[in-house]
Amino acid sequence: MHDRTAMVVCYTRRMNTQLRADGRFWLTLDGKNFLGRGRVELLQRIRETGSISKAAKTMKMSYKAAWDAVDAMNTAWDTPLVESGPAGSRLTPDAERLIAAYQQAEARHAAFMLKLAQSLPEPGA
Q: pLDDT per residue over 60-118, tens digit each?
């Protein structure tokens, strides 16, 4: 005896689906990612804690990963963004200017992405 079982698959569309534009924002330097949301957060945490190690802990990242990011930024920029010594670490004026520039540019990027999304067609329209 053969058992004939039919499987019925029902596909439903979620209500309120919307086509979106999505993109991450980075400032690049010489064609390489230089400053993004994570690195800006790291710089801000260094400012708050006065320490690369403490900043890394608050972000749940290893000290090596934080140090590598700081070293990469310091090397890529003409002058250091983070200066470290026996008393701890501090941001330079260049780092503060870059954080402000990044935040302004990221806000403009977010506004552009929202405007772009509003011009996209709706599914089924």
A: 999 999 999 999 999 999 999 999 999 999 999 999 999 999 999 999 999 999 898 88
Q: Using CA of residue 44, residue 47, residue 52, residue 58, what is the dihedral sign? A: negative
Q: What is residue 33's three-state secondary structure?
A: strand
Question: Is 116 within 8 Å of 19 (Cβ atoms)?
Answer: no
The pTM assigned to this predicted structure is: 0.80
Please say whether the beta carbons of 6 and 58 come within 8 A. no
Burial degree of 80 (CB within 10 A; 0-12, 13-18, 19+)? middle
Strands 82-85 and 88-91: antiparallel
What is the DSSP secondary structure assignment for residue 12, as one 8-state letter? -
Q: Are 74 and 89 in contact (CB under 8 A)?
A: no
How far apart (Å, rounded) are the C-alpha atoms in residues 84 and 115?
42
Q: Is residue 122 within 8 Å of residue 115, measured between CB atoms? A: no
> φ, ψ for residue 31 (rounded to 5)?
80, 5
